[in-house]
Design brief:
Elements: E1 22-26, H1 27-36, E2 41-44, H2 46-50, H3 54-63, E3 68-71, H4 74-82, E4 88-91, H5 97-105, E5 109-112, H6 115-118, E6 124-127, H7 140-147, E7 152-156, H8 168-184, E8 190-192, H9 196-201, E9 210-212, E10 235-240, E11 243-247, E12 252-253, E13 259-260, E14 265-270, E15 286-290, E16 293-298, E17 306-311, E18 321-328, E19 331-333, H10 335-342, H11 346-351, E20 358-362
Parallel strand pairs: 1-20, 2-3, 2-9, 3-4, 4-5, 5-6, 6-7, 7-8
Antiparallel strand pairs: 1-10, 10-18, 11-14, 12-13, 14-17, 15-16, 15-18, 16-17, 18-19
Helix pairs in contact: 1-3, 4-5
This protein binds pyridoxal-5'-phosphate.
């Protein structure tokens, strides 16, 4: 019934003095992941580098051998330039006229599928829609006309199902794109198609450059274990034990009392919640690591806190580090595990961490 080791000194890290939760970003892991990926490599650092911090992730990717950086928006390109990054930039998203001006001001190449944008931008990558059905043109004559322009510097497409091994669409898209590249018949263009899954799955999809995002961050595009591809997760998410209390058998916890203690237990409160991007769908549906051991979070995830059942006897103390994603001792929780519990993909788990979670890059 007593908490063991009461006299132990607190392990609350200095990192939490000014923050409730911190995402530590291992830039060395990003660098090593890039070094392992095929070259030439365009590292995709859109959406704040998939939640990892775009400028520092970009610098680490370049140090790991990336030659290009890709973003979705003109603003993201401008942000990289403001951070002093001089590498070749590609803006992949749809652009308004105003955004196009921002992209060009950032000296970025842009992706085109209309005459209008192709006529305005000095360096364009022509995108053929071979089956993604999102951006790019399906009109092959238009794509051939755009590709024949002197300002065309690249040809590209994007795969819809590269992460679904054994599907037929991937091969069909690849063949279709190959035919297009042959029909264009220029050997002065950079031809690129592969995202992370394609890059890892099929060397035949690499062409002149791969465009990898998720793998750069050590996340598995196939939602399994990134180690299977020699990739190291770069992001770990940590918080701390801010409060400890005793629950008697039958007592409930949190909004709606969605969990009740069957037996007496110690309960830790950890200051991270859906206001930080730790989603409410993880209610009664996640583990955390404290002192190298897994413990279940119990009760509803609230905006600012989660609660963790520690059992009837515990050595855990106020200030102990709590790992929500990452390693502690011999244990680890992958973003892929969190994604599975949420019924989503690892991309959304890291990208969904909100600005309230401080990013702390380290080497
Ligand atoms: C056009 C394009 N290329 C490449 C990527 C990188 O994909 P991944 O993160 O799966 O490697 C993305 C990301 O969604 C994209 O939109």
């Amino acid at each position: 019934m007593t908490r063991a080791s009461r006299g132990r000194c607190t392990r609350r890290s200095d990192a939490f003095r000014d923050g409730r939760a911190v995402a530590r970003i291992d830039l060395g892991a990003i660098e090593r992941n890039c070094a392992r990926l095929p070259k030439p490599l365009c590292a995709v650092v859109k959406a704040n580098g998939y939640g990892h911090g775009s400028a520092s992730a970009a610098e680490a990717a370049l140090a790991g051998g990336a030659d290009w950086l890709a973003v979705a928006t003109a603003g993201e390109a401008a942000e990289l330039r403001a951070a002093g990054i001089e590498a070749q930039l590609l803006v992949m998203g749809a652009l308004t006229k105003d955004e196009l001006a921002i992209a060009l001001n950032a000296d970025a190449d842009v992706v085109v599928w209309t005459e209008e944008i192709a006529a305005t931008a000095p360096r364009v990558h022509v995108k053929l829609d071979t089956g993604m059905g999102r951006l790019g043109t399906k009109d092959r004559d238009l794509a051939l006309r755009l590709a024949a322009r002197p300002n065309a510097v690249g040809l590209m497409t994007h795969f819809a199902t590269a992460d679904e091994r054994g599907d037929e669409l991937f091969d069909a898209q690849l063949s279709d794109f190959r035919r297009f590249v042959d029909d264009v018949g220029r050997d002065d263009l950079i031809v690129h198609a592969a995202n992370s899954a394609a890059a890892l799955r099929d060397p035949g999809s690499h062409f002149d450059m791969v465009r990898c995002g998720v793998a750069v961050y050590g996340l598995d595009p196939f939602q399994q274990d990134p180690a299977a591809h020699g990739l190291e997760p770069a992001l770990s998410l940590q918080s701390w034990v801010a409060s400890i209390r005793r629950l008697e058998g039958g007592e409930g916890v949190g909004y709606g009392h969605t969990w009740r203690a069957e037996e007496p237990t110690w309960l830790a409160t950890v200051p991270i919640g859906y206001g930080d991007g730790w989603r409410r769908g993880l209610t009664n549906n996640a583990d955390v690591l404290i002192r190298g051991r897994r413990h279940p979070t119990v009760g509803s995830v609230s905006m600012d806190n989660v609660t963790v059942a520690l059992g009837d006897d515990t050595d855990i103390e106020l200030g102990d580090e709590v790992v929500l994603i990452g390693r502690q001792g011999e244990e680890r929780i992958l973003a892929e595990e969190v994604a599975r519990r949420l019924g989503t993909i690892n991309y959304e788990v890291t990208t969904g961490l909100l600005a309230r979670v401080r990013r702390e890059p380290f080497r």
